[in-house]
């Protein structure tokens, strides 16, 4: 999934769906990164150093992408928390409604 597609989809979704989608993309990027690193180790072990170098570069790319996406996910979570937190403070400051049990 390309980053441009992810960004465009995020603009069209509400915050919860955006967070879930971003979380899924982060997991996919980490998995892809690990696959490239494993393939690089295999290529290096077989003596194909040029291929190992290319695969390591791809792994580094997905590593940077995953870190950036995680940061975006944290920012989205913080903005959602900042939106919800004042409402929760207002609810917590209200006195509880108690039913009298005079039967």
Instruction: Characterize the overall form.
Output: rod-shaped
How many β strands by DSSP? Answer: 0
The average pLDDT value, as a whole number, equals 77
Poorly predicted ranges? none
Q: What's the SSE pattern? A: HHH
The helix tally amounts to 3
Largest sheet: none
| N-C termini distance | 64 Å
**Relative strand content:** under 5%
User: Structural class of the helices, strands and pairings?
Assistant: mainly alpha
Tell me the helix content: over 70%
Oligomer: single chain
- Gyration radius (Cα, Å) is 23 Å
Pfam families: DUF1771
InterPro entries: DUF1771
Domain DUF1771: 24-67
Protein name: DUF1771 domain-containing protein
Q: Care to describe what's here?
A:
- It is a single chain.
- With 103 residues, this protein is mostly helical.
- It has a domain at 16-73.
- The protein has helices at 3-12, 15-45, 49-93.
- Helix 2 packs antiparallel against helix 3.
- The radius of gyration is 23 Å and the shape is rod-shaped.
- The mean pLDDT is 77.
């Amino acid at each position: 999934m390309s980053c441009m597609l992810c960004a465009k989809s995020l603009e069209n979704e509400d915050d919860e769906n955006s967070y879930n989608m971003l979380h899924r993309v982060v997991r996919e990027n980490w998995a892809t990164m690990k696959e490239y690193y494993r393939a690089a180790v295999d290529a290096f072990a077989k003596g194909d150093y040029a291929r190992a170098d290319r695969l390591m570069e791809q792994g580094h790319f997905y590593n940077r992408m995953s870190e950036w996406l995680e940061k975006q996910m944290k920012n989205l979570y913080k903005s959602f928390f900042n939106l919800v937190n004042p409402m929760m403070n207002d609810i917590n400051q209200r006195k509880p409604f108690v039913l009298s049990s005079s039967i």
